[in-house]
Amino acid sequence: MAQKIMGIEMTGRNILIAVAFMVATYIAIRLVGTFAIVLTTGLLGFVVSAVVGFLLFAAYMRGR
If you write DSSP's letter for every residue of 2-60 in order, what string do you get? Predict the structure, then answer.
């Protein structure tokens, strides 16, 4: 019987799935970080901020 950690059997297949989730999470975090840097710097950052601000204002006014 395989050893259990937090109720999950640590078989070879489950370890590979866990590693795959870790790698996917790392890649997702890096992508989100990259997009955050691109969308918040320079002229593009100003335009994105203005559009988001306008959309939030429009949603607020519509909700009133």
Answer: --EETTEE--HHHHHHHHHHHHHHHHHHHHHHHHHHHHTSHHHHHHHHHHHHHHHHHHH
Per residue in 5-24, pLDDT tens? Answer: 777 787 888 889 999 999 99
Tokens of 16: 């590979």
25 is written with which tokens? Answer: 């999470």
Would you give the DSSP letter of residue 62? H
The pTM score is 0.58
Q: Are strands 4-5 and 8-9 parallel, antiparallel or unpaired?
A: antiparallel
C-alpha pair distances (Å), 62 with each of 51, 57, 58:
16, 9, 6
Tell me the two tokens of residue 20.
């795959």
